[in-house]
């Protein structure tokens, strides 16, 4: 993806899209898919417009959702900023004001599913618990994400993920109780 960044669409397209994302999207349109799709490796992707409530963790990640899949398995959803991000506090304050005024800005991410299992602590048996982590790497929206986390507010995320049944199922499980996700 980072190699393709050099071949990205013209700056004016990015500026128009940035303004639309700042004001929030109701749907994912062809222009957004064309712009971000030009950066992705060949393959099949699903695109979700998800409503999240991010909470900043001590390691500069944002936890958005956790749900039990069954008695032994859990799913977590995180948003992780890409690279060392120097946030412009005035931009964070700008988005905090937009959110207070009722705007739900939109961020964009590229997601992956990290599935693992680990032994249950404190048991003599070989009991294992499954953990699925849906991780969204933030492509656009660092200031929006921090503003939403600061306020305990909601944010929309266009989540681009590899097209796999397992990822669709985990995404649905994490967002089924949240009717704003689509």
Succession of helices and strands: HHEEEEHEEHEH
Task: Count the beta strands.
Answer: 7
| Helix residue percentage | 25-40%
In terms of structural class, how would the helical and strand content be classed?
alpha/beta
| Beta strand % | 25-35%
Q: How would a textbook summarize the main sheet?
A: 7 strands, mixed
Instruction: Kindly report the average pLDDT value.
Output: 83
Count of helical segments?
5
What general outline do the C-alpha atoms trace? globular
Describe the SSE topology:
Blueprint: H1 11-23, H2 30-37, E1 45-52, E2 55-56, E3 62-68, E4 73-81, H3 89-100, E5 106-119, E6 128-140, H4 142-151, E7 155-162, H5 165-175
Parallel strand pairs: 4-6, 5-7
Antiparallel strand pairs: 1-7, 2-3, 3-4, 5-6
Helix pairs in contact: 3-4
From the structure above, extract its key features.
disordered N terminus, disordered C terminus, alpha/beta, single chain, seven-stranded mixed sheet, 5 helices, 182 residues
Task: Provide a brief overview of the structure.
The chain has 182 residues and is an alpha/beta fold. The chain is built from five helices and seven strands; from the N terminus they run ααββββαββαβα.
Describe this structure in words.
The protein has about 180 residues and is α/β, with parallel strands linked by helices. It has five helices and seven strands. The protein has helices at about 10-25, 30-35, 90-100, 140-150, 165-175, and strands at about 45-50, 55, 60-70, 75-80, 105-120, 130-140, 155-160. A seven-stranded mixed β-sheet has the order 1-7-5-6-4-3-2. Mean pLDDT is about 85; it is low at about 1-10 and about 180.
């Amino acid at each position: 993806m980072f190699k393709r960044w050099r071949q990205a669409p013209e700056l004016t397209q990015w500026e128009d899209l940035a303004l639309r994302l700042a004001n929030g999207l109701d749907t994912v349109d062809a222009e957004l898919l064309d712009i971000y799709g030009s950066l992705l490796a060949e393959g099949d992707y699903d695109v979700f417009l998800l409503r999240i409530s991010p909470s900043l963790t001590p390691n500069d990640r944002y936890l958005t959702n956790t749900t039990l899949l069954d008695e032994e398995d859990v799913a977590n959803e995180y948003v992780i900023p890409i690279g060392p991000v120097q946030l412009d506090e005035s931009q964070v304050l700008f988005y905090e004001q937009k959110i207070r005024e009722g705007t739900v800005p939109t961020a964009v991410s590229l997601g992956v599913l990290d599935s693992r299992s680990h032994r249950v602590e404190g048991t003599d048996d070989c009991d294992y618990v499954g953990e699925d982590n849906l991780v969204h790497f933030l492509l656009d929206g660092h200031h929006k994400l921090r503003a939403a986390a600061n306020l305990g507010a909601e944010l929309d995320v266009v989540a681009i993920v590899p097209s796999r049944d397992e990822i669709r199922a985990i995404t649905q499980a994490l967002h089924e109780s949240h009717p704003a996700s689509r």
